[in-house]
Amino acid sequence: AVVLARLGTALFSLVYWPLAFALMLVGATLTLVLLLVRFPYQRVHMWVTAPLFAGCVPLSFTRMRVHYHPDFDPQSRSIFTQNHINLLDGMVASAAIPHAFSGLMNAWQFKIPIYGWLMSMSKGIPVHRGRRDQTLKSISDAARERKRIGMSVLTFPEGHRTTDGRIRPFRRGVFMMARNAEMAVVPIAVRGMYEVNHKGSLAFHPGRTIDVFVGPQHDPSGLSDQELPDFAERVRSFMVHCLEHGEWPEKGGESRAAE
Q: What digits encode the pLDDT tens for the residues 87-112?
């Protein structure tokens, strides 16, 4: 039975990956066509890009439940911080974030065929290697511009995909960017995705359920560089609680079930 289960998983994965990339290619092509005829990307994102990319999740026979915190403001353009698990992280965000967003990623990723092209078309923000102050100014200015045109920014403050399902320590730059751009931070905690697929494996395990917790806005405005690490840890602790307990943390230390 174990051998048959592994064989079934391997066969499913061999079919799933080409189908998922084909769906993304369709999304990228349609996005490019609409942008070439001068449709604003914000609308293209909601009409084409996000729905097709989000479709990669149910395509894997994974059930996704999105829970929005009662204090989450869907109209506020924010910096979304999501735990980094696998190659479907952006697809999950496409289903959970209710308006257009761009991604923050290493500059070299923009050179990846199809994926990098789409990131450029979708106003992604590249992080170039170099002096820290120059990099911070560059991404802060870019985030401020995304806010001006009605877009949010998706980030993975761990920097790398998890190797054990747990949330790694956060890097400070994302939160400095949020403060400088005068944008609130919204945590997105994805629970159960590590069991579907994770770093180091191409195997997909269908039939699982993942829960996506979209938290409230956390305002970093006015915080000093010395205060930002504590702020980042509060956001991280919120996400860890959602992952470990499957419910919202309360300020008093108690928990409340997600709806």
A: 999 999 999 999 999 999 888 888 87
HSE, side-chain direction, 13 A CA sphere, residue 95: 21
Q: Is the pLDDT of residue 225 over 70?
A: yes
The average pLDDT across 138-166 equals 96
Q: Choose among 3, 161, 179: nearest CA to 11.
A: 3
Q: At CB < 8 A and 24+ separation, what contacts does 119-123 make? A: 121/28, 121/31, 121/32, 121/35, 121/41, 122/31, 122/41, 122/45, 122/49, 123/41, 123/149, 123/151
49 DSSP 8-state letter = I
Question: Are the beta carbons of 220 and 231 closer than 8 angstroms?
Answer: yes
pLDDT in tens, 42-73: 999 999 999 999 999 999 999 999 999 999 99
User: Two tokens at 242?
Assistant: 């959602």
pLDDT category, 10, cuts 50, 70, 90? very high
47-to-19, 29, 44, 90, 187 alpha-carbon distances in Å: 21, 13, 5, 16, 25
Quick count: other Cβ atoms within 10 Å of Cβ 115?
18
221 touches 182 (CB < 8 A): yes
Residue 220: what residue type? Answer: P
Taking the CA of residue 162 as centre, how many other CA atoms within 13 Å lie in the half-sphere pointing to its CB?
23
